[in-house]
Structures are given as C-alpha cells and as structure tokens.
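Continuing from the previous page...

OK, I double-checked the sequence for catechol 1,2-dioxygenase against my notes and this is the correct one:
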Amino acid sequence: MTVKISHTADVQAFFNKVAGLDHAEGNPRFKQIILRVLQDTARLVEDLEITEDEFWHAIDYLNRLGGRNEAGLLAAGLGIEHFLDLLQDAKDAEAGLGGGTPRTIEGPLYVAGAPLAQGEARMDDGTDPGVVMFLQGQVFDADGKPLAGATVDLWHANTQGTYSYFDSTQSEYNLRRRIITDAVGRYRARSIVPSGYGCDPQGTTQECLDLLGRHGQRPAHVHFFISAPGFRHLTTQINLKMPLPRVIAVFRASALPNCEGDKYLWDDFAYATRDGLIGELRFVAFDFHLQAAAAPEAEARSHRPRALQEG
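Thanks. Re-ran it with the corrected sequence; updated structure tokens here:
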C-alpha cells in the first residue's frame, strides 16, 4: 500500500513555510508558484512511488540539462511550448478573437539585433553553397488591408541545420534579418534553403526523448516575428515543403534539403507544424495577417530571455 502524507496538516504547513508564506517579505506570485510546485511534486512522488534513486537521477539530469543550455529545447520537445500556444488559442476563442495567421512556437535560437533593411534583404553571407531560396509576401490586417512599416524579423538554419551565433563557424547574423515592409506591406528576402536538423544525439534533450521512444528531428523551417504598431505581435514559423518530382529535376540528389518527402514535415518533434503554416520551397510566397491589439502590451513579444536581448 502506498503511504501518502502530503495532504496532512503538518506537511502542508511545512510547504507553506518553505514557500515563504509565513512572512510578508518576498514576491507573492513566486511564493504561490513554488507552493504549487512543492505540492504537485510531493503528490507525484507519492502517486508514482518515485524511488530515492529515481529522484536523484532526475536532479542530476536537471543539472546536466542546464549545463548544456538545453532547457528551452526540452520545453519544445516535451510539447510544453506548444501547449502554451494551444492555451492562448483557447483564451482567444473564449474572448471572441479570431482570424489572423496561426501562432506557433518561437524555439530557443532567436538572436536579437539582426540587421534592419527596408523592403528587401539578402540573408546569407554567400559562403554556404546552398540552393538559392526567395521568400516574399505581404503583411495585412485582419480585414486584408496591407500594413506598411511592419517589421518582419526572420531567421533560419543553414544547410547543416545550425544557426549563427550558436554555431561559431558562421558569420554574425548569418541567415537573420529584420525587414520593414514597403508601402503595400510587402517584404522580400533572398536566402538559401535551410536543412532540417535533429537534437544532439549525445545531448540531454535526446537522452530524454530516447527514454520516451521518440525522435528529435525537425523539418526545414523559417522562423518569424511579425509586428506593427497597433497590432498583436505574431510569433510563428513556416515548415517548408517541395514537390519531389520537380525538385529532382532541379537539384542533385545530394543537395536535396529536408522538406517534402521528409517524414518529419508533419512529425516535428517540437510540435511546431500547424495547418496554414506550410510553404512551398525555393520560391516561398507567404502572407501574414495580424490581429488588432486590444492593449499596448499585446504589441510586444514575450519577455523570455533571448541571446543579445537587452532588458
């Protein structure tokens, strides 16, 4: 029989003390969160009869996860980041907020301060012998009116599936740009076809996925932040597909990127693929539709920590 004590008055009083609820100093919101973490962790230990060895293996795993800076990656891989999107979708539906381009996860590899261009930009530095890709589209409001002066902040991996800043072999801000839309809300970018990629097979995220019997692969994709004064900030990404018969006639087989024909297009370990967020490859035309912001804070992206981001 499982012994359970977390519900007792003595243990609850102990948790309240640990969470700082026996004094006024500190942050009330943080205290509330810590108390819930303590209570739920205790119930988890009791309900699943977590052994002492299992508990300390978990603590060791968290230490190693932080040491490799993979917590953000694991949050995506376990679907927690996707859950936040699903929850916000439900809140929007409850509030009667519909329309607009679907949101999806940001991922952990954004870098603030990319070069800013007016209307169009070249994203690659010319050192990667990849296949040229053109991206263009327009930014509209929910009624289809073009939004001039919107900011399209986009980034993606290279042909090896790695990102500048995190990959020291790439030049600064390679494959990262911010583009201000023109008078008709249009943006244009020249880049190279990115590759899909997987988690480091020796990393802590893949270690967890292995125990779950899951892969850690992502299809080729491009990340976007879309913002404009008076409109809700949009965080999204498009996964890329291409009709293989056409591509085989254009590319050498060895140069085929990780796109259509790639089983991971709809089996993304980070759960970022969503209906309405698939783009044809090589010439990617993708428009964005923004919802009006009900309050000024809705115009800004979340305040999660990001590389080179101030404040």
